[in-house]
Amino acid sequence: MGELETITNLIHDRISSMQRTLDLSVAELPQDKIKKLGQELSDLERLVGAFEDCVEQQKEQLRHLKELEKTFQKNLEDVQHLKNNIPAHMPRTTGPPIGCEPAVVTQKDAAGLQTVQVENIKSKKSFVREMEFITMPEFESIPQYMRGRVSYDQLNATVQGINVAVKAKYKILHQSVKTLSNHSRKMHQRFKDQETKDTKGQFFVVEDDIREFTQVKLDKRFQGMLHMLRHCQRLRELRGGKITRYVLL
pTM, whole model, 2 decimals? Predict the structure, then answer.
């Protein structure tokens, strides 16, 4: 930009010099040469005017580019923030993706589909429910007095710990007692003894299960996180027989 302004000033200086020369030689130059020189000066002034217009356009484009640069920098910072703050646990999606139509099953595939359905019925016996991870909007909806200093990742780490305990417990329950070790048989019997008519068809764990299968500390902070999970409707407590059952919802 500085070079363009320098060139403009040089052109203006040249015009001024030519005008002074014209003034000094007006008495000696022939009339036709004076007219020609005047025309050249007029053309030169028009060129300078066009040149200055071009400079102004370049200045405007430069201002526009600087605004785009600021916008790009802001978007880059937002993307970097998202990259640095991706939740450790992403909520699961339920149902088919939006816009996806159900597949059409032909008669040729019917036999195979029936086989898959039979296998699915068998697999239901070994199905184990898992607690859904807490979403950020759900976490932010928890009252501050209840959250305390517990972070989003800490709460979902507890969710993961409970899921580990649930899967380990029901893996034992779904096995034949004959295939279990002595220790697993004792746990299998304890699991059965803890079941009641209210837990039929439900998945639950007790504190002993969490101690057995995870490294989660069952301290006051853990109890506070259980309150938060109840608030988010992830579990409910069922008391009886001097133990508390944490039933997944």
Answer: 0.55
